[in-house]
Amino acid sequence: MTAKRVEDIYEQHIKSLPDVEQLRLIALIAKKLIETVETATHSQRSLLELEGLGAEIWQGIDAQQYVDELRKEWDHRP
Fold first, then answer.
1. How many angstroms separate the CA atoms of 44 and 42, rounded?
2. Average pLDDT of span 17-25
3. What confidence score (pLDDT) does residue 9 get?
4. Domain range summary for the chain, segments of one domain joined by +
5. 12 DSSP assignment
6. Does the structure show a pLDDT above 90 at 37?
7. CB 25 within 8 A of CB 17
8. In a designed cystine with 17, which of 8, 21, 33, 37 is the match (CB 3.0 to 4.6 A)?
């Protein structure tokens, strides 16, 4: 919807409404927007869903030995 169209709707239909009705309209629009944002927020994925992903890559690898090897590499970096 273009800005001009929004302005036309306002001029033709909303501007003539009493202030109380305009506020009621604003409240309805705000409520709808809040529901839309909340729905979008809840539909986002959680980082916790990644837990355990790729665990098979690390099977058979000793964690302490892996860390020790990384630390040895750090000592030789410029």
1. 5
2. 95
3. 93
4. 3-42
5. I
6. no
7. yes
8. 21
The sign of the CA dihedral 16, 18, 22, 25 is negative
Rounded Cα–Cα distance for residues 45 and 41 (Å): 9
Provide the Cα torsion 67, 69, 71, 75; round to 10°: 180
- Quote the DSSP letter at residue 1: -
Burial zone of 22 (CB within 10 Å; 0-12 exposed, 13-18 middle, 19+ buried): middle
Q: Where are the alpha helices (DSSP H) in 1-78?
A: 3-9, 19-42, 63-75
What pLDDT, on a 0 to 100 scale, did the predictor assign at position 78?
67
The rounded distance, in Å, linking the Cα atoms of 25 and 40 is 23
Amino acid at 46: S
In this structure, of 35-39, 42-46, 63-67, the range with the lowest mean pLDDT score is 42-46
Task: Name the one residue in this structure whose structure tokens are 């690898």.
Answer: 61
